[in-house]
Amino acid sequence: MNRVEFFVDGFNLYHALIDNHYNRYKWLDLLKLAKCFIKPQDQVIGINYFTSYVVWDPQKVSRHQVYTSALQSVGVKIVFGSFKAKDRKCRNCNAVYKTFEEKQTDVNIAIKLFQSAINNVFDTAIIVSGDSDLVPAIEAVKTTFPAKSVGVVIPIGRRAESLKNATDFHMKMKEKHLSTCQFPDAITLPGGRQLCRPVQWK
């Protein structure tokens, strides 16, 4: 049996969906998605979803909380990063305005990947991301644990050549994966609470 652990870069996947006008696929069941990228003899032993709440937008936070609860209902582990406020200056008028930068996701993925390798949690790690910042972590794990395999699933619409070159194998996420791996519109939890797909995601 080949033990497979997934590491999902939520921010990178989210923007791949937005950039390709796939808003309707945000209600994505990551357990179903993971099973699209393994072999029959493989076992998914863990899915880690790395994300951050956009705390300056309460409505988005509310939708995101519903989604993370849906993911937890199928056993996905949520690992939170954060956004950091940063001042930027307009090149045209020199006005200063505030933006937010997502922090910690690539570091959190690197740490969790290495921890799982050290603790012999997986035989194969599959990273879902198009972020080249993850290349050093992948190379470090491959060098330190040569018996383990590291692959990548490239989010739809991304190229990620450096990730392809750094990993043992790569696969491409397609629209058919997104369309067939949606949660039902309403999920009933064991206690009776219902989680409903946000209307903005339909």
What does this structure look like?
With 202 residues, the chain is of the alpha/beta class. The protein has a single domain, classed as 5'-nuclease (Rossmann fold), CATH 3.40.50. The protein is 34% helix and 29% strand. It contains seven helices and ten strands. Strands 3-2-1-6-7-8 form a six-stranded parallel sheet, with helices on both faces. It has a two-stranded antiparallel sheet with strand order 4-5. The protein has a two-stranded antiparallel ribbon with strand order 9-10. The radius of gyration is 18 Å and the shape is globular. 30% of the residues are buried.
Highlighted features:
29% strand, six-stranded parallel β-sheet, 202 residues, Rossmann fold, two-stranded antiparallel sheet, alpha/beta
Helices and strands in order, then pairings?
Layout: E1 2-9, H1 10-19, H2 30-35, E2 42-51, H3 58-73, E3 77-80, E4 82-89, E5 96-103, H4 105-118, E6 124-128, H5 135-144, E7 149-154, H6 161-166, E8 169-172, H7 175-180, E9 186-188, E10 194-196
Parallel strand pairs: 1-2, 1-6, 2-3, 6-7, 7-8
Antiparallel strand pairs: 4-5, 9-10
Helix pairs in contact: 4-5
Main sheet attributes: strand count, strand direction, barrel closure? 6 strands, parallel
Helix-strand pattern? EHHEHEEEHEHEHEHEE
SS summary, helix count: 7
Structural class: alpha/beta
Please mark out the parts with pLDDT under 50 across 5 or more consecutive residues, or reply none. none
Shape: globular
What's the number of domains? Answer: 1
- What would the CATH topology be? Rossmann fold
| Span between termini | 38 Å
The number of E-state strands comes to: 10
Overall residue-averaged pLDDT value: 92
> What percent of residues adopt helix (DSSP H or I)?
25-40%
For the largest beta sheet, what order do the strands appear in spatially?
Answer: 3-2-1-6-7-8
* Content of β-strand: 25-35%
What would you say the CATH architecture is? 3-Layer(aba) Sandwich
